[in-house]
Amino acid sequence: MTDRSILKASPITPADAADFIRGRRTVDQFTDEMPDPAIIREAVELARWAPNHHLTQPWRFYTLGPDTQSAIVDLNTRLVAERKGDEVAAAKRERWQAVPGWLAITCVIDDDPIVAQEDYAACACAIQNMSLYLHSAGLGSKWISGEATRHPDLARIMDIDSAREYCVGLLWYGYPKRRPRSQRSDLDAILAARP
Prior knowledge:
single chain; alpha+beta; 4 strands; about 15% strand; globular
């Protein structure tokens, strides 16, 4: 039997938590208003409380200023143009340039493949922590993990050692123009019991 007396009583109900989690959506259209840097700092503070096996704390966070953002936009525009043509690339450039806030999340590289897998999962949990906190502060966010985040030029742009860490993703953030709706698979399609 669990001694529940050691658990701190939650100020919210399970139903409140469920509604809050379901209410967080990926946002990709933002107003021009730049959020208070203190909110972002607190989001990173809470990100580091994510589960991480053996307390490896593999995550690193980078706030990206206008010069770095612009270089990443240029990289992504070039990559999209190579695959999909100039017209699609120009539309992507416009969309990416409109994002007010950018963070990059990297993961320290571990030579042990099992630890490396666990560390990536920990970084994903950290990004979820951040996304939920930003949602609670009235901000929207989007985790970007496309080709630009895996390209070797990104390490040079961000001035990181690609032999020591790699980009898990970019996190766009800002005040949402709209909150998109979303659906998920039926629970019975993904939940199974085993004897």
